[in-house]
Specification:
Length: 127
C-alpha cells in the first residue's frame, strides 16, 4: 500500500511529465509558427518588390556587414510588409512589441526568411 508521500510523489511525477509535454508542444507550435510566418513574410516581400529589388536585397544580405540587419529596409518599409504578413497569419494586426514572445516570433521569422533568401512557393502558404 502506498503512503501519502508516495501518492504525492506519483502526482508530482505525472504533473511534471504533463508540463514537459505541454512545453515540447509549445516549442513545436512556436517553430511551426516561425516557419509559416517566415513564408508569409517572404511572399509579401516578393509581392512588394520588383525582381531587381529582390535580387539586390538578397545580394546585399549576403554581405558580412549585413549580418544583423536586412537590406529590404533600403528599398521599402519592410516592417509594414511584416505587419501585413503578421495580419494574414494571425488574422489581426494588433502586435504588442512589449510582448517578448511576439517580438521573438517576429525576429525569428524574419531571420529565417532572410536566411532562406525569401524563398517561398504558393503551396507553402496554405491560403
Amino acid at each position: 500500500m502506498k503512503t501519502q508521500q508516495d501518492l504525492i510523489d506519483d502526482i508530482y511525477t505525472s504533473l511534471t511529465a504533463a508540463l514537459d509535454l505541454i512545453d515540447a508542444n509549445s516549442r513545436l507550435d512556436h517553430e511551426a509558427s516561425v516557419k509559416k510566418l517566415a513564408k508569409m513574410f517572404s511572399w509579401e516581400l516578393r509581392c512588394a518588390l520588383t525582381e531587381e529589388e529582390m535580387a539586390e536585397v538578397i545580394e546585399a544580405n549576403r554581405e558580412p556587414e549585413n549580418v544583423g540587419t536586412c537590406a529590404s529596409h533600403d528599398v521599402c518599409d519592410a516592417n509594414m510588409v511584416m505587419i501585413e504578413a503578421w495580419t494574414k497569419f494571425f488574422g489581426v494586426d494588433d502586435i504588442n512589441f512589449n510582448d517578448n514572445e511576439q517580438c521573438r516570433l517576429w525576429n525569428e521569422a524574419w531571420d529565417l526568411a532572410k536566411a532562406d533568401e525569401f524563398a517561398v512557393k504558393w503551396q507553402e502558404l496554405d491560403r
